[in-house]
Amino acid sequence: MTELEAGHAQGLAPVRGGSVLQRYRDVLIALIAFAVLASLPLLTGSKALLDFVIRCSAYGLFATSLNLLVGYTGLTSFGHGMFFGLGAYSFGLIMQKLGVPIPVAFVATLAITALIAAVIGAICVRLKEIYFAFVTLAFQMLIHSTILSWASFTGGDQGLRGGIPRPVFLIDLANHVHLYIASCALLILGLLAMRQIAQSPFGYTLRMIRDNAARASFLGIDVWRAKLTVFVLAALFAAMGGMVMALFVSGAYPEFAYWTISGEGIFINMLGGVSTFLGPMVGTVLLLLLNDTVTRFTEYHGIVLGVVILFFALGLRKGLLDFVAEWFSQRRDAGEGR
Question: What confidence category does residue 337 fall into, taking pLDDT thresholds of 50, 70 and 90?
Answer without folding.
Answer: low
